[in-house]
Amino acid sequence: MNIKAINKWIPNLKRPLVIAGPCSAETEEQVMTTAKELVQNEDVRIFRAGIWKPRTRPNSFEGVGEKGLKWLKQVKEETGLLVTTEVANAGHVELALKNDIDILWIGARTTVNPFSVQEIADALKGTNIPVMVKNPINVDLALWMGALERLNLAGLDKLVAIHRGFSTSEKTEYRNQPLWRIPIELKRHLPDLPIICDPSHITGDRNRIALVCQKAMDVDMDGVMVETHPNPEQAWSDAAQQVTPTALASIIKSLNLKTEFSPDRTFEQDLGDLRSQIDRIDSEIIESLKMRFNIVERIGDLKMKNSVTALQVQRLDAMMKRIGDKAKKVGLRHEFVEEIYHVVHEESVKLQTEMMRSFLKDKKDS
Ligand code: PEP
Ligand code: MN
């Protein structure tokens, strides 16, 4: 994919790029007050506000609609900030373009639907307006990449990814689990793609936004998008996760910014040495795994000859206990090691089940 660097279309860009503004545009006064406070903070470059809100249940506030676009236009004229809003269909795109919105974003609930993304891409053909694409709500990297590709194929190259976390049915400390490996994997596939973190939707909790902003900087993301409201408790949507413009300023000031490369030669050398140790260990782990699976196959053979099932729960329990104890003994988190072993064990059962299936088939055929 051919993607234009963000500093090619936003002049004098500093890291992190800060996008701020309310979850939803509520009133002209709320929008203008927020924008005027935010523009005092030179870190803030883009003003966000949702006009059409994808709400989980009907009969909740679904956004002010088209009239909010006039307020965003006014923000742009009075503060000089770039303005962005969410679009979910061709009608939204048409109205946003008509009202000179600078940047569009595709929400998490739209990224999941290739028909909607294609409709938006088609409506944007010939414009080259910047578009930010939020990750789909489910853990699906290909779907996220697919949305970016659809836009790119429509001729758009000012693309940005927004990491807003992933929905889960489990009760976790996050509103949406961050699963950092997913945006990191995206960056590995598309190194030129800027990635912005949305700590508001990840945490769902204003008190934890600073923590997630810092983590985003630590994994070398390009910026943050933080929901900001002059009176967060009174917000019409996502009240628990919005911060005041003053709180936002102190969050950004408190960030410890690291860069991906250091000019210090000894640092680079030490890092290189440690990394080759890691690479060596990783290759040993893979070789050990292969040895383990060779034995799994031999066990499979034995089980077949004795008509024993592939899965034996008692053995699994005993193995998990032994693994957990060993992990604790060497100072690793046992939950982490057990998670790995669940995957390894699943693969072993799969392998033995396949062996049995082809054994039975051969028997039938012969
Ligand atoms: C939003 O940014 O207000 C929003 C609706 O986000 P998401 O699509 O990530 O849920
Ligand atoms: Mn929101």
Strand pairing plus helix content: what structural class?
Answer: alpha/beta
Secondary-structure element sequence? Answer: EHEHEHEHHEHEHEHHEHHHH
**CATH fold assignment of the largest domain:** TIM Barrel
Strand content: 5-15%
**Rg over C-alpha atoms, rounded to the nearest angstrom:** 25 Å
Which ligands does the model contain, each kind named once?
phosphoenolpyruvate, manganese (II) ion
Structural descriptors:
366 residues; TIM Barrel; eight-stranded parallel barrel; 51% helix; 10% strand; binds phosphoenolpyruvate; binds manganese (II) ion
Task: Provide a descriptive summary of the structure in words.
This protein starts with 16 loop residues before the first strand and ends with a helix. The longest helix is centred in the C-terminal third of the chain and has 41 residues, at 265-305. The chain has helices at residues 28-38, 67-79, 90-98, 108-111, 114-124, 141-153, 181-189, 199-203, 209-218, 245-253, 265-305, 313-330, 334-365; strands at residues 17-21, 44-48, 82-86, 103-106, 131-134, 159-163, 195-197, 223-227. The protein has an 8-stranded parallel beta barrel with strand order 1-2-3-4-5-6-7-8, surrounded by 6 helices. It folds into 2 domains: 6-254, TIM Barrel (Alpha-Beta Barrel); 265-365, Chorismate Mutase Domain, subunit A, CATH 1.20.59. It has 366 residues and is an alpha/beta fold. Bound molecules: phosphoenolpyruvate and manganese (II) ion. Manganese (II) ion (MN) binds next to loops.
